[in-house]
Structures are given as C-alpha cells and as structure tokens.
Design goal:
Length: 112
C-alpha cells in the first residue's frame, strides 16, 4: 500500500514513504536473516556430530550422537502462528506478494 501511495504523491510524500518503506523492508529482512541463520546452523549440527571421534566412543555415546544426527536432519526454524518458517525464502515470498498487490493497485488506479 505504501508503494502505491508513493507513485501518486508529491515529492515530499514520496521521500517520506520511501524511507518508511525501506525501514519496513529492513525490519522484515533482519528477522528473516536470523531465521535463515538458525536453519543453516541447525543443519550443521549433524555434520559436527558425525565428524567427531565417535568410533572409539562408548555405546551410550554413539546412541546419543545417533539421536543428535537424526534430529538435525530437519532444520530448526522460527515459525510464527499461521505463517510459514521465517527464512530468506519467506522474505522473498513477502516481497513478491507485496509487489503483486502494488501492481494490481496501480493498474486499477490508472485504468480508471
């Protein structure tokens, strides 16, 4: 909605809305960045567990490592209620959907 208002306003309003739009996008990007970092780090846990000197360890230790490796097959992620996992992929979906709405509003506004 902000992008649409930018295209139909004066220069002062365009600057104000552009700054607000960039700040809003940055907020979403930061959350998605750390969500993606969490997913990447959680997938690396299994590799770190496997690369230990596990073959000389006790049976109990091997079983614990097996559980850790099995759990690390599925990445940990931040999942807000009623949304998908927070990651770069979800950021791109938000940006893509926002542009689609912007294009739709702009088309309907200028067609009239």
């Amino acid at each position: 909605f902000i992008g649409f208002q930018v295209t139909t306003s004066s220069l002062e309003v365009i600057i104000m809305y552009s700054i607000f739009l960039m700040a809003s996008m940055l907020q979403v990007f930061i959350v998605c960045y750390y969500g993606d970092e969490l997913m990447t780090a959680s997938l690396k846990i299994g590799d770190a567990a496997y690369n230990q000197n596990w073959f000389n360890a006790s049976i109990r230790y091997k079983k614990m490592l097996l559980l850790i490796i099995r759990r690390s097959q599925r990445p940990s992620c931040i999942t807000p209620p009623t949304f998908s996992a927070v990651s770069f992929e979800s950021y791109m979906k938000v940006i893509s959907m926002s542009y689609r709405f912007f294009a739709l509003l702009r088309t309907t506004y200028y067609d009239d």
